[in-house]
């Protein structure tokens, strides 16, 4: 079944003949970029949008992964932070983010002669609260993984099958997903969260989120890692580091990490 889906994905790209990939460097869009390159070669282009909501290390990952795949890669600037509909952080914030992204990518694709813009939305994403998907569809973007019915788990299995070393890379949604709906998003707040998460990763932690609410940072880790975290880390040093970034209070979520936790107020789930 998995091999059959991979062939369907390849056939889809062969029919496109040329494609521009909205490429974040995450596992989904990287698989799309890999298959597009395998089928189309230099008729595929991966484009990453750089903005304050993208960690610099994630941009570097995108560059490294694109180079290893072999696909041509470019970086463009997006300006969602200039849109008050986005910075107000409503429940459909992602709609305005993806609108900005595809309003940037579509003209670029047409200018370069690419008839299709494709993204990394997978079949599972269609079951989540993802207002950004609507924005992409309105602008004519296609989602090859979803079209073929490839799930998140299958994305990882296919990535491993194709020899991609980052097949088990943790999901890393944009930094704006760290804030409760209704709290204004600013560049300073995004940078504060980004620095805090980079610091935790420097300590060897892999799957994590730093949720930000006002002056409080709430650290989410997998439930099975919490005891070790508390017992082995120098917590006063960690708190001092977070306070240096601008947080006043530093807390630990005892429920543990759960993707999309801030969407529980909506009664739906989504990555975040």
Short summary:
The protein contains 11 helices and 7 strands.
What does this structure look like?
This protein starts with a helix and ends in a 20-residue tail after the last strand. The mean pLDDT is 94. With 272 residues, the chain is an alpha/beta fold. Helix 1 packs across helix 2 and helix 2 runs parallel beside helix 3. It has a four-stranded parallel sheet, with helices on both faces. Helices cover 46% and strands 12% of the residues. It is built from eleven helices and seven strands. Strand 5 and strand 6 form a beta hairpin.
What features would you highlight for this structure?
11 helices; 46% helix; 12% strand; 3-stranded mixed beta sheet; 4-stranded parallel beta sheet; single chain; 272 residues; alpha/beta
Residues in β-strands, percent: 5-15%
Which stretches of 5+ consecutive residues score pLDDT under 50?
none
Taken from the alpha-carbon principal axes, the silhouette is globular
Strand order of the largest sheet: 3-2-1-4
Order of helices and strands: HEHEHEHHEHHHHEEHHE
Helix content: 40-55%
List how many beta strands DSSP finds: 7
| N-to-C span | 29 Å
Largest β sheet strand count, sense and barrel closure: 4 strands, parallel
User: How large is the radius of gyration?
Assistant: 19 Å
Helix count from the secondary structure assignment? 11
**Mean pLDDT, as a whole number?**
94
Instruction: Briefly note the structural class of the backbone.
Output: alpha/beta
SSE topology sketch:
Layout lengths: L1 H15 L2 E4 L4 H14 L3 E7 L5 H14 L2 E6 L6 H4 L5 H20 L4 E2 L12 H8 L5 H5 L3 H10 L25 H16 L6 E5 L2 E5 L5 H7 L2 H11 L3 E4 L20
Parallel strand pairs: 1-2, 1-4, 2-3, 6-7
Antiparallel strand pairs: 5-6
